[in-house]
Amino acid sequence: MVDFKKVKTPNNTITRNPAVFSEKAGNIYEAVAIIAKRANQISVEMKEELSRKLQEFASYSDNLEEIFENREQIEISKYYERIPKPVLIATQEFLDDRVYFRNTADKEKGVKENA
Q1: How far is Cα 21 from Cα 68, in angstroms, rounded to an integer?
Q2: CA angle, corner 102, sides to 47 and 36, nearest 5?
Q3: Which residues, at least 6 apart from 54, have a Cβ–Cβ distance to it below 8 Å?
């Protein structure tokens, strides 16, 4: 699980050298696919964590007139708006070699050649 408070990722996009991604994954397309999958995982974790925190404030009444402004709920929402987006976190993890990936196609080729 990612600790979003300790992530050292910029909140904005920056220009990156595509050659670095190619070196790490074999080609740029595989690197983008790896980053996209990791970003999806991070996004799911963030959504689940946010849902758990906001569940405390859930109101199960059917009365629409009883809408309360809860300061804690607003602070939680602002926190999640300020943290870096999942793609930026995944990109930084990929560049820092903190993402494990393997190419199963290479293993399948090796099995077919040995047979």
Answers
A1: 48
A2: 35
A3: 73, 76
- CA 52, CA 80: separation in Å to the nearest integer? 13
Measured in residues, the chain has a length of 115
How many CB atoms lie under 10 A from the CB of residue 105?
9
The rounded distance, in Å, linking the Cα atoms of 2 and 13 is: 20
Mean pLDDT by 10 residues, the chain (115 residues): 73 89 93 96 94 80 60 87 92 93 74 50
Which residue type, as a one-letter code, is found at position 108?
A: E
Amino acid (one-letter) located at 74: I
User: Whole-angstrom Cα distance, residue 77 to residue 83?
Assistant: 10
